[in-house]
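Could you show me some protein's one-letter sequence and the numbers that encode its backbone in two labelled lines?

___
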Amino acid sequence: MMKPFLNNSYLFGSNAPFIEELYETYLENPAAVSDQWRDYFDQLQNMPGNGRDVAHAPVIASFAQMAKQGKTAGTSTGVADKRQVGVLQMINAYRFLGNRWAQIDPLKRQERPSITELEPSHYGFTEADLSAPFNIGSFQFQQNSQATLREILEALRQTYCGTLAAEYMYISDIAQKRWIQSRLEPMRSTPAFPAEQKKRILERLTAAETLEKYLHTKYVGQKRFSLEGGESAIVAMDSVINTAGANGVQEIVIGMAHRGRLNVLVNTLGKSPSTLFGEFEGKYAEELAAGDVKYHKGFSSDVNTAGGPVHLTLAFNPSHLEIVNPVVLGSVFARQKRRDGNQSQVLPVLIHGDAAVAGQGINQEILNFSQTRGYGVGGAIHIVINNQIGFTTSDPRDSRSSMYCTDIFKMADTPIFHVNGDDPEAVALACQLAVEFRQTFKKDVVIDLLCYRKLGHNEADEPMVTQPLMYKKIAQHPGTRKLYADRLIGTGVCGANEPDGIIAQYREHLDRGELLYNPVLSGHSRKYAQDWSPYLHKPYTDEGDTGVPLAELKRLAQRLTTMPEGFTLHPTVAKVVEGRKAMGEGARALDWGMGENLAYASLVAQGYGVRLSGQDCGRGTFSHRHAVFHDQNREKWDAGSAIPLQSIQDGQASFVVIDSVLSEAGVLGFEYGYATAEPNQLIIWEAQFGDFANGAQVVIDQFIASGEAKWGRQAGITMLLPHGYEGQGPEHSSARIERFMQLCAEDNWQVCVPSTPAQIFHVLRRQMVRPLRKPLVVITPKSLLRHKDATSSLEELASGTYRTIIDEVDNIDAKKAKRIVLCSGKVYYELLAERRAKDIKDVVIVRVEQLYPFPEEAFDAVVHKYPNAKEVVWCQEEPRNQGSWYWFASRQHLAKCLRKDQELFLIARPASASPAVGYSAKHNVQQKAVIEGAFGPLDQGVPAK
């Protein structure tokens, strides 16, 4: 019997997913499959090495092998057996493909596609078979194991082709698929909410629609990015928050773009309508240095749920829609760490638009690191407000290359619930399931909320110009609230006049600047709230007590060079450790790596956490840091890694170093978000090369540089950007200092170019010990990491501080100096070597170690120290149209500090469209000209005047 059963052709090729599903069913309940399949699987279980939890691959492989051997045709085992297999195949097909027949488009614009796998005739069934009983396998729509084909087909179409359609069969984990089936199939994807909850849904829809119409008539022509057509998004948020509260969530951080933001602010977070109206009317204009438009603003509040209070935070969001997502995740990660890493209590909710979620690559980045150790937050709830039009395009061929805008999430094995926005009960159910799935499996979940956009992209657009047929349908649509109100009236849940009465009540409250139902809890105290008050409204200062006692430095050095017993270092690394031991004992000058590690060690010992991430930051791109050591005889995940900075002392603050995924925008956005939520940790992102910041420029421009001016958001995030012209070509020379300088204003951040180990030690410590939280951009060296002159003593760490200006170090008579050469970074050491080689006695070299805020007082003191120096030269390696020169020239920082008898000149590479040349020989010629030019005749220099 078994041989002919296996030789039937319908079991092979594209039906492999069916076989795997059948095998999963057998593993859970052998009686749920037919006798022939059970006999075969029993034989497979008895094969050598196989147990009850045997992998699926051998099952599929065995069929594939038989197919190769030509065993794809043979005698039939009987019509009944083949029909039973057909039923199980059809169940599997609906689980995979049923969503394509689902009634999820409220506009009903698309015809149902032809999918033969969903037709009973595809499996040989006729009308006469509809009343025949069959085994339902793992299909969980009823308790009995058998049902008629008609009952099975009806249940399949209700479950997978209704207004809520799930995509999940691509998920590799069986338990997750079974969980979804166990929730959807018994109820046939149809909720049975009590009347009270249905009225709550109607109230939420009414609040959403009424606010939009109120704003539309009161503030004619003003942009607000209306939610009309997508009002069920407010129902979705209500369901997410209440389900989350009931499942142990205490904080929710929300990220979203413009559309519907004002509605979420008022109807979800409870922002006062009177405050919103004031923003429309131009009030509050003087609160921040720059401020932002109302549909970019954030908000926070505490709301009550059945499970207890939940703190809500809506993140501030710039115009680059999806870039807020990693920022939200970073903020969530920090909040979870305050709760000892409890991912169940803090939930990220990311609200996307249909065009942006598929179009902007930042989503791929965050999905890629969603399950990693350094960035995983236990999953996010993603709600896509899918108005089926995106920004301006109406044809999916022009907006994406996939069937659904949510297909990108499949890369992370994420379940997707497609739901019709005109069925708000299905929306509420989808969100409830999404939160429960996330809490159970700690994975991302997606709700694809299909709706429409009643107005144009903004309220001034006329959408009929580009989408005439779509907007004819929209013009005829009565609105989701009206449809649902009529539904509740028809079923007796509401009286005939009740829905209109809710509208009238809501409008009356809006007239008073109030909400009909305000969810906000006043005066609620949160245990894990972070206190930012010590850092708010503090004037900028360079001062900071950054020195560490000598004895403590030696103790820290000893801890940094102590390896676990039996730990075998690589010979090269062993020499580094031995060298650091000598440095810690004062027998050898400190190099850059030791100065940096001592900064971290002193901070964690002092109670400040340190988090360092980047693509190669454990070792350091240039193999200088060695914060992580690797045993040469063990794998790193098998106790083969040692991080001395985590063992400085008992009770120390945390030290975390993460070799990040190959991402700049996503990772930097994450670290910025972390820094906005955690003022007591030094949060550092290190670019592999300084130019890698190019890939994260949107985070730098729209968050780090301007977040405080726009939103009052402080963050002490630090960026380490390797920079220096060593002939490594255009992309590995320049950190694009000019871009950072152009963004300098209003003391928004610090741009520093430390040139010694002591300087990096003090500038990193300064970030934490001052009662001030400002972003820090550090232009770090490459070749200086091991330069013989770029060293410091322990005493400089013990008694010094960060020096914004470093004066001449050689013994040159100040009165004999005729020229002052100003510079920053690596070029200093080349200038110093040139002067010493030529025994020049009338030129002094001054390092500007802080480009911004420019230390005018310290600079002025240095300039006036040399009374006979009539020539002042700014010398930089970068082309003259790059680097910091243009900023200095335009702001007159250098010139206004000069005496009247002094003239300012520039020595630099010729202006260039490229950051640096790619040819080594040309680089050497240019570098030589820069160094020699600083000491030669200035007729070739560029006067500042």
Remarks:
- The chain has 33 helices and 25 strands.
- The longest helix spans residues 195-218.
- The mean pLDDT is 89.
- The CA atoms of residues 236 and 428 lie 6 Å apart.
